[in-house]
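Worked example 3. Consider a protein that binds pyridoxal-5'-phosphate.
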Amino acid sequence: MEEKRIKKNLDRVQENIEIYSPKPEDVILIAVTKYFGVDVIEELLDFGIDTFGENKAQVLKEKYEYFKEKFPDKDIKWHFIGNLQKNKVKYIAPFITLIHSVNKLSLVEEIDKRAKQNNRVIDVLIEINVSGEESKEGYIYHDFMLDLPHLLKLENINIIGLMTMAPFIEPEACRSVFGELASIQKDLNKRYFNGKLTKLSMGMSNDYQIALEEGANLIRIGRKLYE
Ligand SMILES: *Cc1c(COP(=O)(O)O)cnc(C)c1O
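Given these inputs, the predicted complex is written out as structure tokens:
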């Protein structure tokens, strides 16, 4: 990977955070590294990036172990961003910083159980299928509301926000989806969470500027960093 190119791409994304976000100081750029091995992550670390997103539990565990051994003093934050299978939670439960994609009760219960075994509380985001498309992962809002009383009782998970994947190719068409997620966040904060849902994970390479305008404070950027 050509370092200069990555640096230029990073600078552009960071400039856009300043331009598009109403609160740029709150925005965390998650460098999605699922396409590459540890060498690219090392380059990104050199540029001051410390938060990485991966979507395969076993691969994530291997990368985590590599960096823990090589740079034990670096405080690297690992985010799980893709569809998480229940039987894979055990690989990431000991160290994961944030799981973005909690979308069913059985998965939350497994995360809670594994967190307990590891003596920790795991931060999670609830993935909402805002558009209601069947092909999309994520809770339909109504189903989430049915599970919510149970979720609020689990002691080893900490729900700190919401995540969505925009369904459209056309970035401008994502705006309503992002806006809707932001308004769900507001509503849930008022009614159940007392302001505790502070994170909104939305926006990828194609549409992160629009997500930022709509209030995203976690953006998950992959391809744009490497092109
Ligand atoms: C791969 C992936 C991303 C990054 O996508 P890019 O288009 O490469 O920016 C973001 N979020 C999730 C859930 C992903 O799986």
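Take a moment to read the result before moving on. The chain has a mean pLDDT of 95. The beta strands are 28-32, 51-54, 77-80, 98-102, 122-127, 157-163, 199-201, 218-221.
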